[in-house]
């Protein structure tokens, strides 16, 4: 899926991927307690639902990065509404070319966005940005079984060939120089309440204005198919949170 229709589908919605404040809090709870104000990088922040939770719960400062400037305006507005404007800075940039010197962050966070470059690349590219002993937390689409149903496997092999199991991702993390502090699946309500539910309503709104644009209609069809597939196979795949700590070199 190209990014422009993806953006139109998500503009103004609370999240641009599955997640919830409860899951963000659960991942934060498995981090070592910071001894000083944390420097946090939120990669692919989207509208900033998790950015605000990070700024609220962790002492320190969050730099929120996204490739779409209009998402960053939402982040700023969210931070202001929450009284956290002084703790959040936004930055337009791409996750495969982050403009920060080595060791800049105590914590790198990324919910629902690592798929853009894939887990192995994110683990490799972001590790140098962490200080020694710094942490990386992200969510990622995973298989929850070694033998997925054929129709789900066919769909995801095409949409996201890099998708693997929770254990597969834990293994990738260890090979890339991290210790796994925690991993847990996101509950199905993290998909429905703030993500697929609002996206489904948006699809219904866009059908008429997009009816003469076959490529955009195809995106709506594909997304609707993705949602319908999840409604039948949520026990076999979903998102999982991974909380990692950079191992010493
Ligand atoms: N973390 C948010 C958004 C997840 S959707 C949430 O959970 O709601 C993925 C996000 O990655 C989108 O906001 C998209 O604009 C952003 N993105 C896509 N490609 C990117 C890139 N190359 N660099 C940085 N962000 C990117």
């Amino acid at each position: 899926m190209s990014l422009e229709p993806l953006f139109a589908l998500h503009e103004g919605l609370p999240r641009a991927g599955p997640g919830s404040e409860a899951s963000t809090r659960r991942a934060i709870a498995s981090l070592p307690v910071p001894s000083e104000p944390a420097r946090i990088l939120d990669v692919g922040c989207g509208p900033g639902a998790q950015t605000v939770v990070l700024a609220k719960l962790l002492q320190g400062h969050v730099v929120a990065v996204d490739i779409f400037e209009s998402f960053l305006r939402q982040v700023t507005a969210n931070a202001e509404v929450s009284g956290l404007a002084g703790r959040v800075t936004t930055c337009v940039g791409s996750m495969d070319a982050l403009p920060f010197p080595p060791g800049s962050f105590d914590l790198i966070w990324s919910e629902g966005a690592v798929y853009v470059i894939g887990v192995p690349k994110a683990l490799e590219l972001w590790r140098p940005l962490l200080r020694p002993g710094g942490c990386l937390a992200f969510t990622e689409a995973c298989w929850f079984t070694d033998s997925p149903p054929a129709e789900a496997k066919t769909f995801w092999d095409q949409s996201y060939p890099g998708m693997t199991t929770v254990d597969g991702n834990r293994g990738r993390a260890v090979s890339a120089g991290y210790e796994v502090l925690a991993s847990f699946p996101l509950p199905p309500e993290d998909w429905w309440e703030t993500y697929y539910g609002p996206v489904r309503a948006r699809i219904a709104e866009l059908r008429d204005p997009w009816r003469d644009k076959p490529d955009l209609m195809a995106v709506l069809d594909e997304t609707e198919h993705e949602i319908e597939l999840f409604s039948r196979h949520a026990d076999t795949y979903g998102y999982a949170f991974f909380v990692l700590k950079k191992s010493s070199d």
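Residues 7 and 68 are 8 Å apart (CA to CA). The domain at 3-192+229-246 is CATH 3.40.50.150 (Rossmann fold).
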